[in-house]
Protein backbone atom coordinates (compact mmCIF):
# COMPACT_ATOMS: atom_id res chain seq x y z
CA UNK A 1 0.00 0.00 0.00
CA UNK A 2 2.86 2.35 0.77
CA UNK A 3 4.04 2.09 -2.84
CA UNK A 4 0.80 3.45 -4.29
CA UNK A 5 1.01 6.76 -6.13
CA UNK A 6 -1.54 8.56 -3.96
CA UNK A 7 -1.19 11.60 -1.69
CA UNK A 8 0.21 10.85 1.78
CA UNK A 9 -3.00 11.86 3.59
CA UNK A 10 -4.96 9.32 1.53
CA UNK A 11 -2.37 6.64 2.17
CA UNK A 12 -2.82 7.20 5.91
CA UNK A 13 -6.58 7.20 5.47
CA UNK A 14 -6.44 3.90 3.53
CA UNK A 15 -4.34 2.37 6.28
CA UNK A 16 -6.82 3.45 8.94
CA UNK A 17 -9.78 2.20 6.87
CA UNK A 18 -8.15 -1.23 6.58
CA UNK A 19 -7.17 -1.31 10.26
CA UNK A 20 -10.67 -0.39 11.47
CA UNK A 21 -9.36 2.95 12.66
CA UNK A 22 -11.85 5.47 11.30
CA UNK A 23 -14.16 7.34 13.68
CA UNK A 24 -17.48 6.03 12.43
CA UNK A 25 -20.64 6.43 14.48
CA UNK A 26 -20.59 2.74 15.32
CA UNK A 27 -17.04 2.85 16.65
CA UNK A 28 -17.79 6.01 18.63
CA UNK A 29 -20.89 4.39 20.14
CA UNK A 30 -18.84 1.32 21.02
CA UNK A 31 -16.32 3.57 22.76
CA UNK A 32 -19.07 4.94 24.96
CA UNK A 33 -19.62 8.22 23.14
CA UNK A 34 -23.29 9.17 23.46
CA UNK A 35 -24.18 9.06 19.82
CA UNK A 36 -26.58 6.98 17.74
CA UNK A 37 -24.56 4.34 15.86
CA UNK A 38 -26.82 4.27 12.82
CA UNK A 39 -25.89 5.75 9.43
CA UNK A 40 -26.98 9.40 9.34
CA UNK A 41 -27.26 9.36 5.56
CA UNK A 42 -29.43 6.35 4.76
CA UNK A 43 -30.50 5.33 8.29
CA UNK A 44 -30.47 1.73 7.11
CA UNK A 45 -27.97 0.15 9.45
CA UNK A 46 -25.07 0.92 11.73
CA UNK A 47 -22.40 3.24 10.38
CA UNK A 48 -19.45 0.88 10.25
CA UNK A 49 -16.45 1.55 8.00
CA UNK A 50 -17.63 -0.87 5.34
CA UNK A 51 -21.13 0.60 5.46
CA UNK A 52 -19.91 4.18 5.17
CA UNK A 53 -17.41 3.55 2.36
CA UNK A 54 -18.95 0.68 0.42
CA UNK A 55 -22.41 -0.61 1.25
CA UNK A 56 -24.31 2.57 2.12
CA UNK A 57 -26.65 3.54 -0.74
CA UNK A 58 -24.92 6.94 -0.80
CA UNK A 59 -21.56 5.23 -1.37
CA UNK A 60 -23.03 2.92 -3.99
CA UNK A 61 -24.23 5.82 -6.05
CA UNK A 62 -20.57 6.87 -6.33
CA UNK A 63 -19.24 3.37 -7.06
CA UNK A 64 -21.66 3.07 -9.97
CA UNK A 65 -19.33 5.38 -11.91
CA UNK A 66 -16.44 2.91 -11.74
CA UNK A 67 -17.12 1.13 -14.99
CA UNK A 68 -13.69 -0.49 -15.35
CA UNK A 69 -13.66 -1.97 -11.85
CA UNK A 70 -11.88 -5.37 -12.05
CA UNK A 71 -14.01 -7.02 -9.34
CA UNK A 72 -17.63 -7.14 -8.30
CA UNK A 73 -17.64 -5.95 -4.72
CA UNK A 74 -21.35 -5.26 -4.44
CA UNK A 75 -21.99 -8.88 -3.65
CA UNK A 76 -21.31 -10.33 -0.23
CA UNK A 77 -20.52 -8.29 2.80
CA UNK A 78 -16.92 -7.44 1.93
CA UNK A 79 -15.01 -4.94 4.01
CA UNK A 80 -12.38 -2.50 2.77
CA UNK A 81 -9.48 -4.91 3.30
CA UNK A 82 -11.27 -7.78 1.48
CA UNK A 83 -11.94 -5.52 -1.48
CA UNK A 84 -8.37 -4.17 -1.56
CA UNK A 85 -7.00 -7.75 -1.53
CA UNK A 86 -9.27 -8.79 -4.39
CA UNK A 87 -8.32 -5.75 -6.45
CA UNK A 88 -4.63 -6.53 -5.84
CA UNK A 89 -5.26 -10.04 -7.10
CA UNK A 90 -7.38 -9.24 -10.15
CA UNK A 91 -6.58 -5.64 -11.01
CA UNK A 92 -3.66 -3.26 -11.28
CA UNK A 93 -1.98 -0.76 -8.97
CA UNK A 94 -4.01 1.91 -10.74
CA UNK A 95 -7.25 0.13 -9.73
CA UNK A 96 -6.13 0.11 -6.11
CA UNK A 97 -5.33 3.82 -6.32
CA UNK A 98 -8.78 4.49 -7.76
CA UNK A 99 -10.35 2.46 -4.96
CA UNK A 100 -8.61 4.26 -2.11
CA UNK A 101 -8.86 7.76 -3.52
CA UNK A 102 -12.56 7.22 -4.12
CA UNK A 103 -13.17 5.84 -0.62
CA UNK A 104 -11.38 8.90 0.76
CA UNK A 105 -13.58 11.15 -1.38
CA UNK A 106 -16.73 9.35 -0.15
CA UNK A 107 -15.59 9.69 3.47
CA UNK A 108 -14.74 13.35 3.05
CA UNK A 109 -18.13 14.06 1.47
CA UNK A 110 -19.99 12.17 4.23
CA UNK A 111 -18.36 14.36 6.83
CA UNK A 112 -19.25 17.46 4.84
CA UNK A 113 -22.89 16.35 4.74
CA UNK A 114 -22.98 15.53 8.46
CA UNK A 115 -21.57 18.97 9.22
CA UNK A 116 -24.17 20.52 6.94
CA UNK A 117 -21.65 21.66 4.37
CA UNK A 118 -22.61 21.83 0.68
CA UNK A 119 -23.50 18.37 -0.56
CA UNK A 120 -21.83 16.97 -3.68
CA UNK A 121 -23.71 14.70 -6.07
CA UNK A 122 -22.35 11.13 -6.44
CA UNK A 123 -20.89 11.91 -9.86
CA UNK A 124 -19.17 15.01 -8.44
CA UNK A 125 -17.64 12.90 -5.67
CA UNK A 126 -16.41 10.43 -8.30
CA UNK A 127 -15.08 13.13 -10.64
CA UNK A 128 -13.28 14.92 -7.80
CA UNK A 129 -11.59 11.68 -6.78
CA UNK A 130 -10.41 10.92 -10.32
CA UNK A 131 -9.19 14.48 -10.85
CA UNK A 132 -7.26 14.31 -7.60
CA UNK A 133 -5.64 11.06 -8.74
CA UNK A 134 -4.69 12.42 -12.17
CA UNK A 135 -3.35 15.69 -10.77
CA UNK A 136 -1.21 13.84 -8.26
CA UNK A 137 0.18 11.42 -10.83
CA UNK A 138 0.74 14.27 -13.29
CA UNK A 139 2.81 16.12 -10.69
CA UNK A 140 4.93 13.01 -10.05
CA UNK A 141 5.49 12.47 -13.79
CA UNK A 142 6.46 16.10 -14.37
CA UNK A 143 8.96 15.88 -11.53
CA UNK A 144 10.32 12.61 -12.89
CA UNK A 145 10.74 14.05 -16.39
CA UNK A 146 12.66 17.03 -15.03
CA UNK A 147 15.13 14.63 -13.44
CA UNK A 148 15.75 12.67 -16.65
CA UNK A 149 19.00 13.30 -18.51
CA UNK A 150 18.39 14.78 -21.97
CA UNK A 151 18.18 12.19 -24.77
CA UNK A 152 20.60 12.90 -27.58
CA UNK A 153 18.93 11.88 -30.78
CA UNK A 154 16.86 8.83 -31.57
CA UNK A 155 18.08 5.67 -29.85
CA UNK A 156 17.34 2.07 -30.77
CA UNK A 157 15.44 -0.01 -28.20
CA UNK A 158 17.08 -2.85 -26.23
CA UNK A 159 17.05 -6.37 -27.77
CA UNK A 160 13.59 -8.05 -27.73
CA UNK A 161 11.91 -4.63 -27.50
CA UNK A 162 10.42 -2.63 -30.37
CA UNK A 163 10.32 1.12 -30.57
CA UNK A 164 7.22 2.77 -31.97
CA UNK A 165 7.68 6.39 -33.02
CA UNK A 166 4.48 8.24 -33.77
CA UNK A 167 3.52 11.74 -34.85
CA UNK A 168 0.41 13.65 -35.82
CA UNK A 169 0.04 16.35 -38.45
CA UNK A 170 -2.73 18.86 -38.46
CA UNK A 171 -3.39 22.11 -40.29
CA UNK A 172 -5.43 25.21 -39.80
CA UNK A 173 -6.89 25.03 -43.31
CA UNK A 174 -9.45 22.45 -42.19
CA UNK A 175 -7.84 19.63 -44.13
CA UNK A 176 -8.09 16.23 -42.50
CA UNK A 177 -5.43 15.45 -39.89
CA UNK A 178 -3.01 12.59 -40.40
CA UNK A 179 -0.70 10.40 -38.37
CA UNK A 180 2.53 8.53 -38.99
CA UNK A 181 3.89 5.42 -37.27
CA UNK A 182 7.25 3.68 -37.61
CA UNK A 183 8.28 0.57 -35.71
CA UNK A 184 11.95 -0.36 -35.45
CA UNK A 185 13.90 -3.13 -33.74
CA UNK A 186 17.10 -3.05 -31.70
CA UNK A 187 19.40 -2.47 -34.67
CA UNK A 188 17.29 0.42 -35.85
CA UNK A 189 15.86 -1.53 -38.79
CA UNK A 190 12.32 -0.69 -39.80
CA UNK A 191 9.83 -3.47 -39.14
CA UNK A 192 6.72 -1.64 -40.28
CA UNK A 193 5.47 1.85 -41.01
CA UNK A 194 2.10 3.40 -41.58
CA UNK A 195 0.69 6.70 -42.85
CA UNK A 196 -2.95 7.33 -42.02
CA UNK A 197 -5.33 10.04 -43.18
CA UNK A 198 -7.80 10.55 -40.32
CA UNK A 199 -11.52 10.97 -40.89
CA UNK A 200 -11.63 14.61 -39.75
CA UNK A 201 -9.60 17.65 -38.81
CA UNK A 202 -8.65 17.32 -35.12
CA UNK A 203 -6.90 19.64 -32.69
CA UNK A 204 -3.18 19.08 -32.12
CA UNK A 205 -3.56 17.14 -28.86
CA UNK A 206 -6.25 14.80 -30.14
CA UNK A 207 -4.20 14.15 -33.27
CA UNK A 208 -1.19 13.19 -31.12
CA UNK A 209 -3.41 10.87 -29.05
CA UNK A 210 -4.74 9.31 -32.28
CA UNK A 211 -1.13 8.84 -33.43
CA UNK A 212 -0.45 6.87 -30.23
CA UNK A 213 -3.53 4.77 -30.92
CA UNK A 214 -2.37 4.10 -34.52
CA UNK A 215 1.04 3.03 -33.20
CA UNK A 216 -0.53 0.62 -30.72
CA UNK A 217 -2.82 -0.83 -33.39
CA UNK A 218 0.05 -1.49 -35.79
CA UNK A 219 2.15 -3.09 -33.02
CA UNK A 220 -0.89 -5.17 -32.10
CA UNK A 221 -1.24 -6.43 -35.67
CA UNK A 222 2.41 -7.51 -35.52
CA UNK A 223 1.74 -9.21 -32.16
CA UNK A 224 4.71 -7.48 -30.54
CA UNK A 225 5.30 -8.22 -26.87
CA UNK A 226 7.53 -5.45 -25.50
CA UNK A 227 7.22 -1.95 -26.85
CA UNK A 228 8.40 1.60 -26.23
CA UNK A 229 6.26 4.35 -27.70
CA UNK A 230 7.93 7.65 -28.40
CA UNK A 231 6.54 10.99 -29.55
CA UNK A 232 7.27 14.67 -29.28
CA UNK A 233 4.07 15.71 -27.47
CA UNK A 234 4.83 15.97 -23.76
CA UNK A 235 1.13 16.54 -22.98
CA UNK A 236 0.08 13.28 -24.63
CA UNK A 237 2.94 11.36 -22.96
CA UNK A 238 1.93 12.72 -19.56
CA UNK A 239 -1.74 11.96 -20.19
CA UNK A 240 -0.96 8.28 -20.84
CA UNK A 241 1.51 8.03 -17.95
CA UNK A 242 -0.93 9.54 -15.49
CA UNK A 243 -4.02 7.79 -16.89
CA UNK A 244 -5.59 11.21 -17.28
CA UNK A 245 -8.74 11.04 -19.36
CA UNK A 246 -9.75 14.70 -19.34
CA UNK A 247 -10.06 17.17 -22.19
CA UNK A 248 -10.69 16.63 -25.86
CA UNK A 249 -8.12 13.85 -26.15
CA UNK A 250 -9.45 12.09 -23.03
CA UNK A 251 -11.58 9.44 -24.76
CA UNK A 252 -8.73 8.54 -27.14
CA UNK A 253 -6.25 8.27 -24.25
CA UNK A 254 -8.73 6.10 -22.39
CA UNK A 255 -9.01 3.78 -25.41
CA UNK A 256 -5.24 3.71 -25.84
CA UNK A 257 -4.74 2.70 -22.20
CA UNK A 258 -7.08 -0.24 -22.71
CA UNK A 259 -5.27 -1.29 -25.89
CA UNK A 260 -1.91 -1.14 -24.11
CA UNK A 261 -3.03 -4.05 -21.89
CA UNK A 262 -2.33 -6.43 -24.77
CA UNK A 263 1.45 -5.96 -24.44
CA UNK A 264 3.70 -7.89 -22.07
CA UNK A 265 5.34 -4.61 -21.20
CA UNK A 266 5.10 -1.08 -22.52
CA UNK A 267 6.53 2.33 -21.90
CA UNK A 268 5.80 5.71 -23.36
CA UNK A 269 8.29 8.53 -23.45
CA UNK A 270 8.89 11.96 -24.82
CA UNK A 271 11.41 12.71 -27.55
CA UNK A 272 12.46 16.07 -28.96
CA UNK A 273 10.72 17.02 -32.18
CA UNK A 274 14.04 17.12 -34.09
CA UNK A 275 14.59 13.42 -33.38
CA UNK A 276 11.15 12.25 -34.42
CA UNK A 277 11.66 13.01 -38.13
CA UNK A 278 10.72 9.58 -39.51
CA UNK A 279 7.28 9.55 -37.88
CA UNK A 280 6.81 13.20 -38.85
CA UNK A 281 7.60 12.45 -42.47
CA UNK A 282 5.11 9.56 -42.49
CA UNK A 283 2.37 11.82 -41.12
CA UNK A 284 3.19 14.49 -43.72
CA UNK A 285 3.19 11.90 -46.48
CA UNK A 286 -0.40 10.94 -45.68
CA UNK A 287 -1.41 14.57 -45.82
CA UNK A 288 0.35 15.26 -49.12
CA UNK A 289 -0.96 12.18 -50.90
CA UNK A 290 -4.32 11.95 -49.10
CA UNK A 291 -3.71 8.20 -48.91
CA UNK A 292 -3.42 5.80 -46.00
CA UNK A 293 -0.73 3.22 -46.50
CA UNK A 294 1.19 0.51 -44.60
CA UNK A 295 4.69 -0.81 -45.29
CA UNK A 296 5.72 -4.14 -43.80
CA UNK A 297 9.48 -4.76 -43.90
CA UNK A 298 10.24 -2.81 -47.09
CA UNK A 299 11.06 0.76 -46.33
CA UNK A 300 9.55 3.33 -48.68
CA UNK A 301 12.42 4.83 -50.76
CA UNK A 302 11.64 8.42 -49.73
CA UNK A 303 12.15 7.44 -46.09
CA UNK A 304 15.47 5.72 -46.64
CA UNK A 305 17.81 8.60 -45.74
CA UNK A 306 15.98 9.54 -42.56
CA UNK A 307 15.97 5.91 -41.42
CA UNK A 308 19.64 5.57 -42.24
CA UNK A 309 20.46 8.72 -40.28
CA UNK A 310 18.77 7.37 -37.12
CA UNK A 311 20.33 3.93 -37.64
CA UNK A 312 23.84 5.40 -37.96
CA UNK A 313 23.66 6.34 -34.29
CA UNK A 314 22.77 2.85 -33.04
ZN1 LIG B 1 -25.89 4.46 5.02
TrEMBL record:
<dbReference type="GO" id="GO:0003676">
    <property type="term" value="F:nucleic acid binding"/>
</dbReference>
<dbReference type="InterPro" id="IPR044730">
    <property type="entry name" value="RNase_H-like_dom_plant"/>
</dbReference>
<protein>
    <recommendedName>
        <fullName>RNase H type-1 domain-containing protein</fullName>
    </recommendedName>
</protein>
<dbReference type="InterPro" id="IPR052929">
    <property type="entry name" value="RNase_H-like_EbsB-rel"/>
</dbReference>
<dbReference type="InterPro" id="IPR036397">
    <property type="entry name" value="RNaseH_sf"/>
</dbReference>
<dbReference type="InterPro" id="IPR012337">
    <property type="entry name" value="RNaseH-like_sf"/>
</dbReference>
<feature type="domain" description="RNase H type-1">
    <location>
        <begin position="165"/>
        <end position="286"/>
    </location>
</feature>
<dbReference type="InterPro" id="IPR026960">
    <property type="entry name" value="RVT-Znf"/>
</dbReference>
<dbReference type="GO" id="GO:0004523">
    <property type="term" value="F:RNA-DNA hybrid ribonuclease activity"/>
</dbReference>
<dbReference type="Pfam" id="PF13456">
    <property type="entry name" value="RVT_3"/>
</dbReference>
<feature type="domain" description="Reverse transcriptase zinc-binding">
    <location>
        <begin position="1"/>
        <end position="63"/>
    </location>
</feature>
<dbReference type="InterPro" id="IPR002156">
    <property type="entry name" value="RNaseH_domain"/>
</dbReference>
<dbReference type="Pfam" id="PF13966">
    <property type="entry name" value="zf-RVT"/>
</dbReference>
Amino acid sequence: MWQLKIPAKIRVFAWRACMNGLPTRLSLENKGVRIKGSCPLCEKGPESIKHALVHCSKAWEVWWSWQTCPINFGEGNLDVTDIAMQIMEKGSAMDLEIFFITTWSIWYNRNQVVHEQPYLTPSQVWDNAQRLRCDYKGAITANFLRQQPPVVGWAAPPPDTFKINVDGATTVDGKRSSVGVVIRECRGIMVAARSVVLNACYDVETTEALAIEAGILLAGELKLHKVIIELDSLIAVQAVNSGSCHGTMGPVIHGALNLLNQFGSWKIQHLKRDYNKVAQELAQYARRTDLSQTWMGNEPPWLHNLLLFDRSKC
